[in-house]
Write a structure and sequence with these properties.
This protein is an alpha+beta fold. Helix content is about 40%, strand content about 30%. Helix 2 packs across helix 3. The protein is globular and about 35 Å long.
């Protein structure tokens, strides 16, 4: 799956998630597999209550963590691709 900064992603609605301190533990109800998100990944998950463009996520993360936009975009795209491959995110095509 090829995504870019203009791609719109959302949480997969079949994922059950619960906060544990600053992290999130999730389970896929489709396959019964468990996942854990670090505090930064959990922050991204929380920002995705509604479908969101990758570039909007990058902007919000840069503001929150005061980081370089280019490296933030690369890291966010890499993370989103991994989440899509794992079935935790879905890409929205309008």
């Amino acid at each position: 799956m090829m995504i870019n900064s203009g791609s719109i992603v959302r949480r997969n609605p079949v994922i059950i998630a619960a906060g544990v301190d600053e992290e999130i533990v999730m389970m896929s109800s489709d396959c019964g597999q468990y996942f854990g998100l670090s505090s930064v990944a959990a922050h991204i998950w929380r920002l995705m209550e509604e479908p969101v463009r990758i570039d909007t996520l990058v902007e919000l993360l840069c503001e929150h963590y005061d980081i370089d936009p280019a490296s933030c975009e690369a890291d966010t795209l890499d993370f989103a691709k991994k989440m899509l491959d794992a079935g935790l995110f879905e890409e929205i095509n309008y």
